[in-house]
Amino acid sequence: MNSITRLGSVVAASVVVAATVAGCSSDAASEADTTADIATPAASDAVVALVPEEIKARGTLRVAVPDIGAPLGYQENGEMKGMDPALGEAVAAVMGLTYEPEMVPFASTLPGLQADRYDISYGEYYVTAERLQVVDFVSNWQDFSSFIVPSDGDLKPESLTDVCGKPIGAMDGSVELQMLQDTQASCTAAGEAEIDISAFNSISTGVLAMSSGRVDGVLVGRGAGENAIDKGQPVELVGQIGGGITATAVARTAYSDQMLEALQKAYESIIESGVYESILEANNTAYGAIDDPTIFTADSTPPIYQ
Question: Mind listing the domains of the chain with CATH numbers?
Answer without folding.
Answer: 45-142+244-296 (3.40.190.10), 145-242 (3.40.190.10)
